[in-house]
Amino acid sequence: MADSTISDADKIRQKRLAKLGGLPTNSNATPSQPTPAAEPVAPQPPQESQKSPPSTEANGNPFAQLGMKEQEPERKPTQIKIRPRPVSPAQKRPGDASRPRSKTRETESFEVWQDRNLRSIFRVTLNPGETRDSHGHSLMFLSSTMDDLGDGPLLLNTEILEGAITEAASHAPGNKPFEYLLTCFKRVSRGLRSGRFDGELERKRETLREARRLCMSYCIFAVTMPDLFGENVPASNPLVDHLLQDPECDTGICTDFLDEANARIDEDDTIKDALVRAAEELSMRLAGVDLLGDYRQYVGGMRNLIRYKKFADAITQSPMWAPPGIEAVDIETKTLLGPFFRLSPMQLDVARSYFSAPKTRDRGYIANAQNACRITLRTHQDELHRITDQIVRSGAGPKERMLDWFALCVNKNHKKRAMRVDYKIVSSDGFMVNVTNALDQLCEPFMDAQFGKIEKIDIDYLRRNPRVDISEETKINADQKTADDFFAVKAEGTSNFISEVFFLTVAAHHYGTEAAQERHSTLRKTVKRMEQDLEGFENERQQYANDPRYLARFEEHVKRYKTNIDDNWSIIHATYGVLSDDLSQARSMQFMRYVIVWLLRLASRQDLPAKEQLQLPLPSEQPDVFRTLPEYFLEDIVDNFKFIVGNIPHIITPQQSDEIVQICVTFLRNSEYVKNPGVKSGLVTILYYGVQAYHNHARGLLGDLLIGSPFAHKHLLHALMKFYIEAESTGTHTQFYDKFNIRFEIFRVIKCIWTNTMYRENLAKEATINTEFFVQFVNMIVNDVTFVLDESLSSFAKIHELTNELKSSTFAGLDEEQKKEQMELLESEKGKAKSYMQLTRESMETLILFTETLANAFTMPEVVTRLAAMLDYNLDIMVGDKRTNLRIENAAEYKFDPRALLQDIIKVFLNLRDKPNFISAIVHDGRSYKQHNFANATDLMTTLQKLSMAPDEIAAWKSLAQRVAHAAAELAQEEEDLGEPPDEFLDPLMSELMTDPVILPSSRTTMDRSTIKQHLLSDPTDPFNRVPLRIEEVVADTEMRGRIEEWKAERLVARRGEKEAVAAAAKAAAESGAMDTSQ
């Protein structure tokens, strides 16, 4: 009879168990009555205390009856008698006749079967004297359960099973009720899965199902209400502990367990809460682990959870999933997926482990360590892809929340591309690289080689409440107001998944992979500067040698500084190892193909690539949807390909090379489509890297394509010439030096493609059809050669001076700061000399190619004067009176070869030697032309063996020198005849007699047409008031021209008269002298 009062603990326990649909039996309650078929048994083990009548002659397996139907009461069971097969005489063994036959095992009742199996599953006993089962497993004695059974049969059944489970779990080994219940769940699952049942099949299956259901329920209680099983239960989430173990081991979360949880999650909210909490704690624990730790078990645990769509849906609704107010630096530790994406070799401790003592390691060691990094990270990134892909495939809700998390990662990290990045407030590079890789892999299903799904990338995505925040991003070719007005007009409809992941991936590349590449480059510069500083510190050591206190502090400071240098080198090696992964970059390249083709479709308004071939130039009216795109769409392409072409070009396929050339040529040819000169210069850099030799490719990755591509034949040369001109003004504070870098790269590309005669024909067309454009291009080449050679020689003089100072006693008397300044100045001058000299050589070699092909074009009035002056000036430097200044130490260090440079100058002279106006321009150069320079050059050509000039070239040079001397004599005679012209007839800039005077419209100044033309080639303003000016706006000063012609005619007539008078006087004097002689 039940007690009238129940303890508070029992009340609480009953309320918690009420969720299961039934209450546990009270310890003093009347025991449940057994079924009529069962007989009371003594409290011994059931196998021995009760016998059932046999139904067959064969021995029965305890689980052998699980496959049979329940017997009908009115129908007698069929008796099957199995007789043993007679044994042949040959098979009889001694003693067989006398061996007694074994008795047939009696069939056990359902109640006995149920008791035996439940005891085996839960490893419990109702016999206080029984401590182990037949297999040696320890058994728990259930005293309360035995009391609940009272005087009835001591048989476990499903009606009292809840109380038995509670009692057993409360006494679980090590106070680990969840572990105990999990092992029970696994045993009952194995029984259901592999058992064969005899008789009453459904009742037995139902018993095991109920046991498994209760195991699952109490497992969840062990997670959500651990105090149900006592006060000493560990506070940590036991579900997490077992998720971290191998699912196949006895204590690991197995598939059966998760299947059961998945089946019941809709009807039991506690399962959902338990799983979400487990996923959260799994994430929080992983936040303290790196690639050197046991991270794989955490990844495996999470992967096992999200394999179930319902679990993925629940987990992505966690408050930890994508907290809206979280800071960028906390995303990788305080969001649910953050710690999984945080794992990377680029973490400092991991980098230190892979690249310990980096400055002492050889290249082979570094390469092997980087390869190990790549293999480890590649495996991990594949796991991250499985996780994200499974979440995306789990339904609309999880897919949207997965995209929200990716959007959080990119939108919170805009400051990663700031001018000066504070790495303490942004996510790590390793984290963002993993995010980029995961998005790249999500894009793979729609990135087919034929671009069949490119039309599904919605051009109106950014006008339809996009996840990607571009409000503060610089646009390709639109100011902020224009972009705001465009995006203010919202597009209808909803964005598809392909568009969402495409735009997120472009942004992720900008803030992830490309940001890591930028930091890698910055770190290398930082380390180089730190190493120079360390040398300076070491030089100061002697100052502290006599003071142990300061010396100790100095040593500690130097040690920390060396550690920082080593750490930076470790991160540099690790970062390069990650970024140079062939598989990841090949995947990135595939994505960039789609970005390129999509941009070209957008800008050209052509159906590329399936139905049309790209046609240039692009439409004059730029599409707003293209103009207002974030600038990083092009920037990502440039940065990505620059890194790959410069470091791992072998991964680029021929198809990708075609698209690289197309986008580079398109936006250099139509440079007005892109506002940022830095992006356009990046396109040139891609081509430049593409023609650099690597391995067995003499023309690099793109050289052969540029030489053979019809698209490049038609547009490349014009595109390069156009940007060569534009580079004069890039709008940056370093534009003066930027233009030389850009032009150097352009020259290298031109030299590579010049072997194809089609490019020579195209240059001739430019000179004929776009004369002004061509003249401007050549004029800038001439200006550059003049400037850079002059700067190079000035730097050489400065280097010579500084080198002597460093060797003098005066330098020894300077303090350390002054010495450092002098040494830095010397290094700066060396760098300038080297850079300028390289550009000088490239410019001269390009001039040789051009003048050899187009002598007529380079002797046009607009070009020839500047070109001849440049050549005269450089010839004077090389062979004139001051050529001894060219003798410098270590000339090869600065790429300075005087003989080769002189040879280049002579070749340009010879290419134009047959043009009369070129000879005239030479002698009209009043600043640098000296006749003896030609004679000096002839002497050097014949005496210097290293000046490899052919005999016919030397003969041609001598002939040119004679013709120049003759022209100079004629010019001198003409100038003598004209005398000193009036100042009003002189050009105000050149102080030379004008031949075609024009009036400038704004300043009303009269000057020669050729002078203002040359000025406008480099500066499109009036030289006297800086008002914008075009050559078409000048007005011919016919009145001034007439006066000049009249003055010249008068002077020539007067001079002719003077000459005739002098000649007549001389003749008369001669005749008079002859007469006197005769007398």
From TrEMBL:
EC nos: 2.3.2.27
GO cellular component, one term: cytoplasm
Localization terms from the record: Cytoplasm; Nucleus
Positions in coiled-coil regions: 513-547
Residue stretches making up the U-box domain: 980-1054
InterPro entries: Ub_conjug_fac_E4_core (IPR019474), UBE4 (IPR045132), Ubox_domain (IPR003613), Znf_RING/FYVE/PHD (IPR013083)
GO biological process: ERAD pathway; protein polyubiquitination; ubiquitin-dependent protein catabolic process
Protein name: Ubiquitin conjugation factor E4
Lineage: Eukaryota, Fungi, Dikarya, Ascomycota, Pezizomycotina
Gene: UFD2_2
Disordered: annotated span: 1-109
Biased composition (Basic and acidic residues): 93-109
Source organism of the structure: Friedmanniomyces endolithicus
Superkingdom per UniProt: Eukaryota
Pathway: Protein modification; protein ubiquitination
One GO MF term attached to the UniProt entry: peptidyl-prolyl cis-trans isomerase activity
Biased composition (Low complexity): 35-55
Keyword annotations: Acyltransferase, Coiled coil, Cytoplasm, Isomerase, Nucleus, Rotamase, Transferase, Ubl conjugation pathway
Similarity-based family: Belongs to the ubiquitin conjugation factor E4 family.
Substrates-to-products reaction catalysed: S-ubiquitinyl-[E2 ubiquitin-conjugating enzyme]-L-cysteine + [acceptor protein]-L-lysine = [E2 ubiquitin-conjugating enzyme]-L-cysteine + N(6)-ubiquitinyl-[acceptor protein]-L-lysine
PANTHER family to which the protein is assigned, alphabetical: UBIQUITIN CONJUGATION FACTOR E4 B, UBIQUITINATION FACTOR E4
Pfam families xref list: U-box, Ufd2P_core
